[in-house]
Design a protein that fits this description.
Length: about 120
């Protein structure tokens, strides 16, 4: 993803350390990650895996986070996986989730637009 000459990079498996951050910076990449605590990223885990959560629970956890966090989802980066080995795929709930969040006053922007706010 490019904006203002930057290339935005989310590390594989969302795993990184200080060496990865330095490497990304040297390469001119802006490393970013999802906002912790929301739980949206758990949609990768297939049934039978210890990390598996049903899509309905993931959606409810997102809405509960929004209701209970001091800032809600303002400025949050949610990670959802479009492809996974799950039978219970989260993308089927993406439209109702987005509609609910829009009804709560949220609007959606691209990652580069969101992260550009802090650089203006």
């Amino acid at each position: 993803m490019r904006s203002d000459g930057l290339i935005y990079f989310i590390p594989p498996y969302e795993w990184y350390n200080s060496q990865h951050s330095a490497w990304a910076r040297e390469m001119g990449l802006l490393l970013f990650n999802f906002t912790p605590g929301i739980g949206s990223h758990r949609d990768w885990a297939p049934e039978g895996h210890a990390a598996f959560r049903p899509s309905e629970q993931i959606m409810q956890d997102i809405l509960t986070f929004e209701e209970t966090d001091d800032y809600g989802l303002n400025g949050a980066l949610m990670l959802l996986h479009l492809g996974s080995q799950r039978e219970d795929k989260m993308p089927r709930l993406l439209e109702p989730l987005m509609e609910e969040l829009e009804a709560r006053g949220y609007r959606f922007v691209r990652v580069d637009e969101l992260l550009a706010v802090g650089r203006r």
